[in-house]
Structures are given as C-alpha cells and as structure tokens.
Design goal:
This protein has one domain: TIM Barrel, CATH 3.20.20.70. Helices cover about 45% and strands about 10% of the residues. The protein is built from twelve helices and eight strands. Strands 7-6-5-4-3-2-1-8 form an eight-stranded parallel β-sheet.
Amino acid sequence: MSTPAVVDPLVSPVTPAAIRAFLGSVPSVDEVAVHARVGSLATRSIKKASKRSAIDLAIRMTDLTTLEGMDTPGKVKQLATKAVTPDPSDPSIPSVAAVCVYPARVRDAVEVVAGTGVRVAAVATYFPSGQAPLDVKLADTRAAVEAGADEIDMVIDRGAFHTGDHLKVYEEIVATKEACGPAHLKVILETGELGTYDNVRRASMLAMAAGADFIKTSTGKVVPAATREVTLVMLEAIRDFNALTGSVIGMKPAGGIRTTKDAIKYLVLLNETLGTTWMTPELFRFGASSLLNDLLMQARWLAEGRYQGPDYFTKD
C-alpha cells in the first residue's frame, strides 16, 4: 500500500481570508455525541494478561515533567535519571519517552539522558501564557534547541485566537517551527481557555496546518487541563487532517492524568479513534508528573500480587 502524498491545506501566500475559509470548512463538533462516545469507551475493560502491555506502553509514552519555579539542576538530574530507569529494581520496566523541563534546565537533563534514547523536551515561547513578543518567543525556542532539546512544547497566543487574529497564531507557529530546526514541535492549545469544542477543533486544525508535529491539550497550569472529551475532539481533528492532507500528526494530553486507569482509558480512546498506527510514543504522549508512579505501582502489583506503598518510588 503506497503512502499518500502530503498536501498543504493552505497555499502560499497565506492570508486572513484563506485562513477564514479553511477554518470555515471545519465542521462543528456534536457535543452530545462526544460525551456519549467517551462514556461508551470508558466502559471497555482490559484483561489482566493485556494490562502489563498497556502499562508498559503508557510508561513508554510518558513525558516525565517538572515545570516549577524552584526546579534546580539536582532535581532535574534526579528526574532524568528516573526517566531512564523508572524502577531500578525491575529492569523489565522501560524508559519513558522524554523528560520535559524549562529551557534553563535542558542541559541538566541532556547530561543524564545522552545516549539512552530518552528525549529532552523543553517548554518555550513564554510558557505558559504565550504573552511575549515573537522575537522573545523565538529566542526562547532557539536557546532550548541549542542547549540540546529534542522537542519543543510551545503555547499558542490564546488572546490572538479569541480576537479572531488567526493569521497571527498561524504565523507564530510557522516561525517557531522554523526556529526548532531538527527538534520536533508540539503545539499547546491550552484547551481550558478556548471555551468550546468548536474552538478546540479549529485551533487543532490551524496548528496542524502551520506545521505542528504534535498537538497538545494543556500547559498543566490551567483548570481544566486534559479531559477525554477534549482529547477525542483533537484526535478526530487529527484523523480529519490526515484524510485531508496525508500528514500524520501526534497527540499529547497533559495535565490531570494521574492514574493507570485514566491512562488506559486514553489508550482505548486513541486506538478506537486513530487505530494502531498511533499506538506508539512517536505519535502519542502523556504529559504527566505523578502518573508514572501509579503505573509503576500497578506493574509491581501484577508482578507480585501486592501493592507497594506510595513512598516506595521516588517522588517526581
């Protein structure tokens, strides 16, 4: 089966009118159907024999994250060590996908994960607000890449989106993608501030048209953060964009995903919406800090038939 050619949905030069036409072609979201679909898939169960595979996949899909003002080199190096070897007592536990930090802490993470296959992701573009001049955002991005970041998680300008300046949002993503160089770009929509599912769908399509390698729900600094309903809307946008252009775009729900049960529900949603092609860390990530420990506790229960206490694994 041949791979379809990738088609650019917006032909240069991109104008406000072209973007309005493109976003105007995006169908509205049936909110009732979204909630019904999420509710239905939440009832799916995974047999014990498959649960360890699902846990290992969720671990391999995790972006282990610390984004606090009090992050220190030591804290980041400890987190990066855990990203490489989540459970030193069990070598069968895989490494996570990436460790996600502020640009100032990228070199600390790179020092630990170099050569392990674990990537370093950096939030950029004046995270979490995105309220800074473009030259500041691009300098932030370039600094993170020069420090060794493999992936950049940028935030869109939600103020521009809400005032209808979609061209500004588009052009900032295009410019940030160029500043990334070889690094992959994840575009954070901050869905908790977008207001409606229709806005989430349009912002998803706009980000993908501008060159996002991934679209991401949230910074984790705004409530609500990731929800399965919003994730379904974004997954369906990825499906539609793939059908329109041939592009294969990744997805990252982030914020508020804390338990193995939650993670498995997201994996069911992913598989049922986009299929097995997307069931890989190359195309799906969990942005999380506390999820990993619960996954490790569940893996230990499956192996030994008993739970470890919550303090058995290091705090993230």
